[in-house]
Amino acid sequence: MVDKIVPRKVEKLVGVKGMNDILPPDSARWEALEATVRELMSRYAYRNIRTPILEQTALFVRGIGEVTDIVEKEMYSFEDRSDKHGQAEHLSMRPEGTAAVVRAVIESNLLYDGGKRLFYMGPMFRREKPQRGRYRQFHQVGVEALGFAGPDTDAEVILLATSLWKAIGLTDVRLELNSLGQPAERAQHRAQLIAYFEKHADLLDEDARRRLHSNPLRILDTKNPAMQEMVAAAPRLLDFLGAESLAHFEGLKAILDANDVTYTINPRLVRGLDYYNLTVFEFVTDRLGSQGTVCAGGRYDDLIVQIGGKAAPAVGWALGIERVLELLKEQGTAVSTCVPDAYAIISEVTDLPQVMRHLQALRSLGVSVQMHTAGPEGMASFKSQFKRADTSGARFALVFGADEMRQGQVTIKPLRDATQTQVIQPLDQIEQWAKSLQSPA
Ligand code: ATP
Ligand code: MG
After folding, report:
1. Do 175 and 97 share a structural domain?
2. What is the pLDDT tens value at each position of the chain, 441 positions in all?
3. Ligand 1: which of 141, 287, 323, 324 to mutate, judged by most atoms within 8 Å of the beta carbon?
4. What's a single GO MF annotation on this record (predicted)?
5. 248 CB under 6 A from ligand 1?
6. What is the 3-state secondary structure (H, E, C) of 145-161?
7. How far apart are CA 193 and CA 202, in angstroms?
8. Is the CB of residue 365 less than 8 Å from the CB of residue 431?
């Protein structure tokens, strides 16, 4: 005797907080953006680099800086299982891309024959409070130009970003620029900054008080509204820059001006990561609330040495894909949706083997085709198949009826354009008419 199977209520499993599924049709917008990025990178001769999700925790502690939000509280870190010597590695999921790119560049000695222009795309992980535009798994596109010291390269990466905005139709961003100078200049400024903050100690929040001596520059980056006014009047790093740093800044501005890139100087722009010097910049928008930074970057001439490589200058940026797509949506910019060219309607289950052969031929000729699949009772009625064809968004229905199949033909019925007429085409000459089904774009 077979036991009766009693259905048991199974607890529903859900995804991890702050980590999203990217589902169709939305995923088509991601693919379109990624395709545009790849195309643009190759036009600027930036080449793709792919590093692992996991790195030694020490890489990020050294690379990003110990006294930063990311390293202090946002990393997903764990101790791996011990190897046969009883040693366990401390690993972290990457919270950003630059440190790993620099590690890989050093490890493979990529700069042995001169500078390198690189780009990456992929998920990053930070344990932040999830909200609109801020997630625990999010995605970045980043560029890193390593081995180039001049302001022309700062300008190049900024121009690349503005070309990307143009290519995807993003209009509501503005560029903010600043220079952080060199370590010696920052040290002078730092002393005065600490004195200033000490004078206003009553206004400092807990984070700021803790950073007052370890990383006072970062206090300028505060998001606390109660501190904004006091921070706005703090001593400006720009006023401490020497001739060389100023010349670099002027060089960058001259190139941006010649290319009609508009920007504002924001003396309080310091960036959340520790490794920057000279140029820092952000592309910001007012349309995404407090998650208004879409793309951010700058120069990091000391990072390579800090991670153990031979000194080499570098500049780069990273953009948040979620924020870019959100902003495009906010702007009402039309986004590509992915619809098949044709929808195949089939009357007899017994014709499936032959029909599927023809669909394979169409696809290999570049036509995108969705097929109506058979259910347990065979093919659905023509009426319900046509209904599905309509909701699929396809521009044509390919009707493989019993008569058509007997005569080696298919009826092609336009579904969207009333000016087009229905035609019958021979199945042994698919190459002759396949192109007529493809979208003109
Ligand atoms: P924010 O000031 O918004 O926290 P950040 O200074 O931490 O940004 P970067 O580390 O410079 O950001 O990362 C570059 C870009 O990556 C940001 O400008 C943003 O577009 C995106 N980004 C950073 N953190 C997140 C996140 N948690 N969720 C979604 N996008 C993010
Ligand atoms: Mg942040």
Report:
1. yes
2. 556 677 788 999 999 999 999 999 899 999 999 999 999 999 999 999 999 999 999 999 999 888 788 998 999 999 999 888 889 999 999 999 999 999 999 999 999 999 999 999 999 999 999 999 999 999 999 999 999 999 999 999 999 999 999 999 999 999 999 999 998 998 899 999 999 999 999 999 999 999 898 889 889 888 899 999 999 999 999 999 999 999 999 999 999 999 999 999 998 898 766 678 999 999 999 999 888 999 999 999 999 999 999 999 999 999 999 999 999 999 988 766 678 999 999 999 999 999 999 999 999 999 999 999 998 889 999 999 999 999 999 999 999 999 999 999 999 999 999 999 999 999 999 999 999 998 776
3. 323
4. histidine-tRNA ligase activity
5. no
6. EECCCCHHHHHHHHHHH
7. 15
8. yes
Q: Is this structure's pTM higher than 0.85?
A: yes
Residue 374: Cβ within 10 Å count: 13
Decide whether any atom of ligand 1 lies within 6 Å of the 285 Cβ.
no
Domains of the chain: total: 2
> Is residue 57 domain-resident?
yes
Q: Is residue 235 part of a domain?
A: no
CATH (domain of 347): 3.40.50.800
Q: Are residues 324 and 246 in the same domain?
A: yes
Q: Does 353 share its domain with 307? A: no
Distance 32 CA to ligand 1 centre (A): 21
Same domain, 289 and 309: yes
Distance 427 CA to ligand 1 centre (A): 53
Q: Does the beta carbon of 358 sit less than 6 angstroms from any atom of ligand 1?
A: no
Residue 359 inside a domain? The answer is yes
Give the separation between CA 117 and CA 57, rounded to whole angstroms.
Answer: 26
Q: Which residues contact 85 (CB under 8 A, 6 or more apart)?
A: none
Q: Which atom of ligand 1 is nearest to the CA of 282?
A: 18
